[in-house]
Structures are given as C-alpha cells and as structure tokens.
C-alpha cells in the first residue's frame, strides 16, 4: 500500500510539472505556426460556462505570447484557429490541470485504495492521452515547417503515435475494471512517459522552426554545416528577424543556451534538447522554475477581475442588449404601461418571507445607521410595496432594471442580472389582466426573434387542489410546490426522493402526485378532457380546483381569439416556487439548441400588495429572463454582423489638424447626423477603420481639398467617390442619408 502511494505521489508530481511545461511548449508552437489567438480569448463570464482551468491555460498562453509579432490577434489575420490542435489547447491542457488537482487533493489524505481513488488516476490517464494526441498533431505541423529533413528522420525513430496512447488507455481501463490498482497506476505512468516524450518533441520542433537555422549556423561558425546543403528555406529563416513573445523569448533563450554549450551537429542538438526536457534530467527543475517565474511574474496576473456571477459587457454585447431592450420597451409601451423605478435595495423586512425557500438567496447588506437592508431579489415585491405605500388601487407599469441573487452561477444564470417586468394591479374583468400579460410575453419573445419557444401554464389553486387530493398536509403545500418546481430540471424519481426523504411525504402520496404532474397538453384540448372526466377527473370534485378550471376556460378562450394559444401548453407540473402566487402561473422555455432554462415567467398574486398596506389590490405580472434571452441572441449573433455603433459618417482628416476635424464633425452633430472623426496621415488607416466599424460613408479632407474648398464623399460599400463643395457638405450628405 505504501509503495503504491509513493508511486502515485511521483505520478502526481510529474503530471503537475507536465501541465506547466506543456502550456509553455504549446505557446512556442503557436508562434511556429503563426496561429490565430482567438481561441485563447476566454474570460470568466460569471455563469460557470467556461472551466476555470481552461481560462487559466488561455491566460498563461497570452502571458507567454505577449508582444509576439508571429501570432495573429483575434481581430486580425487568418491564422490556424480552426485547427483543433490549437483551438483545443485551453480545453485539453485545462482538463489535465483539473485532473492533476483532483488527484493531488486526495493523495495526502487517502489511507485505503478504493474505486473513487482509482477513478481519479484513470481520469488523469484519459486527459493525458488527449493532451498527448493534441501535442502530437502540433509536432507534425511543426515538422512541416522545419527546414531540415534530418529532424523528421530522428523523430520517426522514436515511434511516437496515437496508437501507443490508445493502447495504454485500453490497458489502464482493463486494470481499473479488474481493480488491479498497481497495474492501473503503472499503465497511467507509462502513458505519462509517452506524453512527456511527445511534448519534448513539440518543443524541439517548434524551437527548430523559430531558431534552428540560426543556432546551427552559429555552431558551425557561420559555414552552414548540416543547416546548409542548398537549403534556401533555412537560410531565409536565418536572415529574418524574429520577434517572439516576452515569455516565449525567455524560454527559447534557455533552450538556445543549452545547445550552444554542447557538441555540434543536428543530431547532437536534438539529443541535447530532448535530454534537457526529460523530467529525470538534473537540469530540468531549473527549467521548470524558470517557466513558472515567467508566468507568475507577469503583470497580467495582477489584472483585476469581476466578482463571481457578474460580467462586463463589451461593445458587441451592448449593441445586442440595446436592441433587445428597445424591442421590449416598445411592446410594453404598446400596452400603455407607465415606467417605474425603485431603489436598488429595500428594507430587509420588505423582502423577508416573500420567496419561500429561495429567501436564502437574498443579498443582505451591512447595517447602515440602524437600518437592515437587502439588495432587491426581484422587481415584483418593490412594485407591490410602491402600490401599497402610495395607496394606489390600479396601476399598469413596466420596469427594466438589475436584481441580485446569491445563486450558484451556471450557463445563463448570474448573481447580478436584468429583469424586464410588466404588471397590472387593480380590479378588472375576470382573467382580463392574466390574458394580457401572457399575450405580452408572447409578443416580446416573437419580437426578439429568438426562435421556437413554449409557455407552460397552470393555476396555483389547481395545484393546491392536486396536493389536497393526494393527501399532502396544507402546511406542506408550499415546500412541496418548491420540489415540484424542479421537474423541469430533474426527473420525477429524484423529485420524489426529495419529497419522501427530506420533506416527509409517504411513497403513496408522492406516487399519486406523480400521476397528476405528468398531465400536459394543448390548453383547450386538455381542458376539455379534464372537464369531461377523461383525465384528472378527481379535480372536478374539488371546489378550488373546479374554480381554477373555470378561470382557465375563460383565459384559454381569450388566448385562442388573440391568436397566441399555439405557443401555450397546459402543464400540471408547473409550480413556480415563489410563495406569493395565488392564481394563474406561467413560464416560458426556449426550445432551440441553446440550453438556458426558463426565459420568462409570471402569474397572479392577489395578496402581496395587501401585505404592505390596508387594502388588498389584486395583481398579475410577467418577468422576462433577459440574461438568458441575451445568451440565445449572442449565440445567434456569432454568425451575423453586429454593428457596435450607429455611426453614419466618418470624417477622415489626412494630416494632423484636429481643428479641421472639429469644424466638420461639429456641423454634422449640429444637424443630428451620427458621426465620428479620425485624424491620420495614411488614407488606408481611415478606410480600414470605416470598413471594420461598418460605417457606410466617409468624408475625406486633405491639404488639396482644404485649398480648393471641397471635400470627397466616399461610399464605403461601392467604393465610389465624388467631389462636393465644402459649403454644400451637410445638404448633400443629408440627401444621401435620407433619400
């Protein structure tokens, strides 16, 4: 047992070193291949959708390549970003880091081997295989750019292949199934050894692409030696000045110093580099330390970060958000609502007890002068407080603003996010406001053009009737509703286990609930079946359920006449966990490829406003999950052109006279033309900027135009230019912008 643990510790140490060196070597390959860096534009979006170790690897690569002239930025150059061996570097290397950390976390505390521990070793083996295969692809790409055939011949003698890695994993899996942990560790250690050789070869081949000709030429005293033989490609590489990254240049210099102090000849140089990169080499620890110093000393490590569950929005995201908010506001104002704003934080007592089990997600603030406050959890409770505080008996309002929840971030789920709410408070015709808010939700989702969706709809009284019929004690209605509300994320068996083991229901009661919550279908059709006793006939014998069915009958007929019922599904499993709902409840779900969960929800809450005052004012509302909708829109926008600004005209001044630009652009601003200016001596800088920013028109003014009292007006799309008098500029431009 002790010897096995010692072997595992060595495996852990060697894998940890590999996870560092492999990233540095991958950075060298990026330069050798002139790769595009867009694959490394990863950041923590705050929703947990990108693994932290992937982000860490991407950050390390960018640290190493900072200042390099050999790689293309994400906005420039063709590069090789579409080649998996480059675009998958953050994933494969990040997964190895994660697997190493997972194994390391138990090595110091484990006393007995079990399947879980063996699983961590096997998991490391799989991730090492993936990294090895990715590195091997880059070795072959590098070999295609190396100017010396001899390097390829030496490489082929090592017989490194994907097959050896796959065979190693096959043997490791077999050992794991047989619970032969000694063999399992041995096989994973063999895989690690193969991957070390591959990564060493990746370093050697990248080094030869970047510095090989110069090194061999220097070692042969400038006579060419084995680097010569009429090899023009190698000679060109020798002459060309190479600008490496600040980090990779240090690594290349270390490797160069190593080979320059040893014997001459191509084969000897390769041998020395492979020996130097062997983790068993006495000089390896010094090299590893140098790589770590490069990564840890870089200033980018001190760049501030956003808190978990939050994110910044760059110009493209802001353009999408602006468009979305415009569509939503237009719909809300079409339905004649008044805009309302409330404080970002409320008294804690205002929010307490309104959200059921989700109350634990409220952000509490530190005591400020004797008041206990909390950040608002939603926009509905502040709206209800406002209506009660001002003694209103009817109010139709919309509110678009941020809310905060101490939730666990996931894809489309943040701790700080916008909500877009529409609520109707007051006494109206039966089901009138309910119909309108469902219709509004449908209009908004259609207007945003996100794709297919459905609106699940139920009635809280109907759900309470189901629970009473099934034998759930009234005191447990709300907590069981919270369990049922998880059915869109968990299978019924898992929810049933929670209801029985954690909340004390009998198995029979939970199973009976299961028969009801599986009932769903087209609204009018399913309602007809229930009213006819074909499905859920017990509901007709329950007064509250029968009343709810009557409400739904009126609502479904109105939705049918409004031509939006085709998106609605009558679903008895819909619960909505918030305590304040009293009637109709609904929830919208996206049915496209992006998995984001609920994208909108709402319902009737007749008693909430009364909690804050003396009058009971019935109300119904909807809230759009705008962050999740924006996630969908951002995914769609990846294949579309999105303009970050609405600039109509670029005033391009050739030279350095700011005063000329100021005069021209101010004339355009004065007549409400969206314009910006640029002062630069080179024409192509202006044109490139206009094209990149998708600005349709450009006004060109140079020394000649100033002397002759003219300007040139250029159509960027057609490239046509025309000369117009300076004093006619605004008039001519307005005609073209507003034909």
Automatic annotation (TrEMBL):
Matching InterPro entries: aa-tRNA-synth_II/BPL/LPL, Anticodon-bd, Anticodon-bd_dom_sf, His-tRNA-ligase, HisRS-like_core, HisRS_anticodon
The Anticodon-binding domain, residue ranges: 648-735
Superkingdom of origin: Eukaryota
UniProt GO BP: histidyl-tRNA aminoacylation; mitochondrial translation
CC annotations in GO: cytosol; mitochondrion
Keyword entries, A-Z: Aminoacyl-tRNA synthetase, ATP-binding, Ligase, Nucleotide-binding, Protein biosynthesis
Record domain Class II Histidinyl-tRNA synthetase (HisRS)-like catalytic core: where: 309-629
E.C. designation(s): 6.1.1.21
Catalytic activity entry: tRNA(His) + L-histidine + ATP = L-histidyl-tRNA(His) + AMP + diphosphate + H(+)
GO terms for MF: ATP binding; histidine-tRNA ligase activity; RNA binding
Family: Belongs to the class-II aminoacyl-tRNA synthetase family.
Annotated protein name in UniProt: Histidine--tRNA ligase, cytoplasmic
Gene name linked to the record: LOC111296913
């Amino acid at each position: 047992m002790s010897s096995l643990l010692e072997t595992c510790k060595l495996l852990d140490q060697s894998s940890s070193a590999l996870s560092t060196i492999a990233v540095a070597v991958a950075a060298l390959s990026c330069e050798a291949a002139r790769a595009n860096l867009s694959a490394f534009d990863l950041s923590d979006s705050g929703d947990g959708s990108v693994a932290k170790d992937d982000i860490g690897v991407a950050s390390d690569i960018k640290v190493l390549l900072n200042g390099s002239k050999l790689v293309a930025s994400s906005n420039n150059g063709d590069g090789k970003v579409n080649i998996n061996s480059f675009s998958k570097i953050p994933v494969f290397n990040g997964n190895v880091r994660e697997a190493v950390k997972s194994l390391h976390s138990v090595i110091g505390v484990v006393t007995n081997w079990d399947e879980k521990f063996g699983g961590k070793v096997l998991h490391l083996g799989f991730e090492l295989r993936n990294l090895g295969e990715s590195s091997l692809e880059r070795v072959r790409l590098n070999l295609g750019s190396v100017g010396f055939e001899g390097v390829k011949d030496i490489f082929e003698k090592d017989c490194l292949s994907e097959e050896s890695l796959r065979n190693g994993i096959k043997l490791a899996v077999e050992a794991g199934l047989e619970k032969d942990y000694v063999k399992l560790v041995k096989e994973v250690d063999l895989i690690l050894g193969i991957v070390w050789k591959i990564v060493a070869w990746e370093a050697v081949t990248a080094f030869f692409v970047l510095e090989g000709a110069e090194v061999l030429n220097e070692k042969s005293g400038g006579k060419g030696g084995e680097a010569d033989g009429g090899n023009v490609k190698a000679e060109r590489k020798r002459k060309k000045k190479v600008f490496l990254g600040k980090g990779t240049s240090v690594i290349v210099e270390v490797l160069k110093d190593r080979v320059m102090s040893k014997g001459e000849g191509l084969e000897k140089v390769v041998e020395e580099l492979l020996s130097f990169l062997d983790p068993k080499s006495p000089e390896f620890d010094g090299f590893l330390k140098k790589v770590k110093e490069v990564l840890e000393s870089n200033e980018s490590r001190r760049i501030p970060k956003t808190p978990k569950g939050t994110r910044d929005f760059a110009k493209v995201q802001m353009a999408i958000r602006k468009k979305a908010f415009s569509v939503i506001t237009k719909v809300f104002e079409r339905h004649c609502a008044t805009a309302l704003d409330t404080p970002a934080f409320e008294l804690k007592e205002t929010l307490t007890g309104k959200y059921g089990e989700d109350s634990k997600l409220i952000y509490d603030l530190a005591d400020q002068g004797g008041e206990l406050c909390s950040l608002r959890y939603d926009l509905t409770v502040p709206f209800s407080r406002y209506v009660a505080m001002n003694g209103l008996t009817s109010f139709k309002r919309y509110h678009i603003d941020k809310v905060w929840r101490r939730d666990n971030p996931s894809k489309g789920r943040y701790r700080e996010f916008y909500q877009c709410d529409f609520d109707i408070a007051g006494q109206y015709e039966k089901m009138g406001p309910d119909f309108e808010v469902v219709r509004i939700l449908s209009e908004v989702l259609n207007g945003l053009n996100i794709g297919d969706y459905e609106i699940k709809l139920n009635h809280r009284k109907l759900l309470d009737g189901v629970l009473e019929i099934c034998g759930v004690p009234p005191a447990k209605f709300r907590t069981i509703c919270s369990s049922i509300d998880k059915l869109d994320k968990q299978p019924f068996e898992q929810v049933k286990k929670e209801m029985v083991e954690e909340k004390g229901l009998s198995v029979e009661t939970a199973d009976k609930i299961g028969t009801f919550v599986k009932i769903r279908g087209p609204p009018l059709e399913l309602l007809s079946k229930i009213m006819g006793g074909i499905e859920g006939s017990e509901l007709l014998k329950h007064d509250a359920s029968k009343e709810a069915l009557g409400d739904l009958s009126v609502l479904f007929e109105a939705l049918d006449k409004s031509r939006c019922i085709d998106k609605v599904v009558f679903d008895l499993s819909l619960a909505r966990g918030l305590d304040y709902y009293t009637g109709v409840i609904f929830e919208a779900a996206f049915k496209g490829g992006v998995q984001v969960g609920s994208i909108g929800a709402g319902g009737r809450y007749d008693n909430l406003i009364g909690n804050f005052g003396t009058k009971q004012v019935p109300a119904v509302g909807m809230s759009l999950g705008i962050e999740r909708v924006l996630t969908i829109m951002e995914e769609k926008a990846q294949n579309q052109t999105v303009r970050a600004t609405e600039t109509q005209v670029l005033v391009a001044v050739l030279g350095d006279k700011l005063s000329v630009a100021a005069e021209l652009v101010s004339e355009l601003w004065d007549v409400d033309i969206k314009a910006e200016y640029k002062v630069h001596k080179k024409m192509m800088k202006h044109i490139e900027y206009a094209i990149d920013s998708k600005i349709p028109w450009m006004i060109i003014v140079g020394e000649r135009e100033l002397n002759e009292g003219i300007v040139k007006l250029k159509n960027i799309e057609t490239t046509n230019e025309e000369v117009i008098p300076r004093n006619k500029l605004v008039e001519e431009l307005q005609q073209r912008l507003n034909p």
